[in-house]
Design goal:
mainly alpha
Length: about 425
Amino acid sequence: MTLASPFSISIVAMTILAFLGLPIGHAMIAGSIVYLWLAGLDMGTVAEQLLNGMYTNYIILAVPLFILAAELMNIGSMTERLLRFCNAIVGRFRGGLAQVNVLQSIIFAGMSGSAIADAAGTGKMMQIMMTADGKYRASYAAALTAATAVIGPIIPPSIPVILFALVSDASIGYLFLGGVIPGLLMAGAQMLIVAWAAKRENFPFEKPTPLREIPGITWRALPTLMMPIVLLGGIYSGATTPTEAAAVAAAYALIISVLLYRSVSFRDFYTSVLASARTSASIGMLIAGALVFNYVVTVENIPESIKVLLQAWDLSPLGFLIMVNILLLLLGCLLEGTTILLVVVPVLLPTAKALGIDMVHFGIVVVVNIMLGLITPPYGLLLFVMTRIAEVPIRDIVRDVMPFLWAMIASLALITLFPDLVLWLPRLLGYQG
């Protein structure tokens, strides 16, 4: 492959279009068309790849359904009741409201599957609660919300895990199970950092919830707390596929918000559907562009070439995983996570399989890396989201998020070194990997 080869020119075209502001999905489609034209291949292949990829992958339907479920939870009072429950459990300790932020992300992770949905939903409410009366610095509250939102796509359900399953053909159900312990490990690391900061900066105590009120608060939050059980119970009992479970999640959120809590108007519902459609269309274009570009990558035999190159380095499975961690953490500073999942990861998969690396373990390692990219400067998307929500300079958020980032990188190292942290739960429920 030379600088004047069709593949090199298509990469240059893609990069230029992306820098000029064209959405990355459109840029990948345009670059792929340039490649097919220069290589003298059938231009109709673009449409064929789009149709085959988008309309024969039943799993992709889960993405817009989980997005809709998260939107419906945010417009109803489900989020508010969840925060009251979390505050009743951990709010009484020093820095209790910061611990509430972590706990609500653990619970909310079992519902939305999206870090952005977590930050934009409960994140807004936590920002208001934490900064009221000057209890916490606005930048610290924003940094903590960004860090806790990372947990969302690691604990099931998870949109990034669904996308990994799409490109790897790994089992979604076992990937979901594999994310539970790593997600809880990262949440535990965050709680330790909060406890350390609470003692160092003398964070305030919250007014403790009387014990006699906790049963009532729990009862009112129970329909919300049951959602992860309904969702994951359907998947692991075999009653639903992950895609069908996503539809159940959206329907459950709608029924609870409208019929039980009576907190959603028709205008709210219309707004949430519209927002879900916009987000789904954006992700859909990325998937479409990646499907076409991955065809180009396959024609050029790039994955096999990289596999041969890495085999020449004689890497061990652990050495390869360390290299993948470094590569993905660096790429996460610059690229959007979905792009990495759909374009970069397929190139690495043949080598991972050749080295005998378990696909569930590899998938969780990849997803954790990509989630950390959301809070890694300079591109970290969650940093920009929280900058808009908190209205504070991004440099202040970056300063306060770094202890959480280092703690989660340490958790990633443990997940990489000890595969059983990922594989124990799937194997407990029948996984043979």
